[in-house]
Amino acid sequence: MRSNVDSAKVQQLMTALGRAAKGPGTVYFTGGASAVLVGWRGATVDIDVRFDPEAPGIFEAIAKIKQDLNINIELASPQDFLPLLPGWQNRSVFIGREGKLSFYHYDFTAQALSKLSRGYERDTSDVQAMYAQGLFSLETLRECFEAIEPELIKFPALEADVLRNRMESFASQVGDQSEEENDGAE
Fold first, then answer.
1. 113 in any annotated domain
2. How far is CA 74 from the centre of its chain?
């Protein structure tokens, strides 16, 4: 059984991947890795990553790094569950460099839509935490949904109407909270 992963363990992973890479590449963290680095969760069970572009030597190193750090690494990102959101790379947040690798948080708007598509309680809590920290806007969330809605047919496990309803329900919920906070500030 693998141990829980905190931000220090993610930093160790970044260092190890940076040492192992034999050329330039980019690593995008998503899900729990973003949660522990940004701080809305103290720990996660696994680290979800996407390599784009993939650095030479990175896959050869993953098995050893998983063993050395006693962590679980999954190759997963929002684009495994949703069509690519336009501008996702520009909205991805730079974390730092280790060796020849650049590390980013995968676009938080894409992470939010992906989590809303699943609809689990933890996912909804993560989306609320991301929104509370200003990591995405409701306007961009809606714009991105509108942009990918025609392509959702390529993802048979998703129903566009269900995702739209979850997104609008979330927007309504946080919009109501924002109005209450603004009323209390006056």
1. yes
2. 12
Is the pTM of the predicted complex or chain greater than 0.85?
A: yes
Number of domains in the chain: 1
Q: 117-165: per-residue pLDDT in tens?
A: 998 998 999 999 999 999 999 999 999 999 999 999 999 999 999 999 9
Structural domain boundaries, residue 58? 7-185
Which residues on adjacent β-strands are paired with residue 30?
Answer: 48
Place of tokens 């962590």: 71
* Ramachandran angles phi, psi of 48, nearest 5°: -95, 130
Query: Is residue 1 domain-resident?
Result: no
CB 70 within 8 A of CB 2: yes
24 occurs within a structural domain? yes
pLDDT of residue 175: 79
Q: Is residue 51 part of a domain?
A: yes
Residue 107: CB atoms within 10 A of its CB come to 28
Q: Are 35 and 9 in contact (CB under 8 A)?
A: no
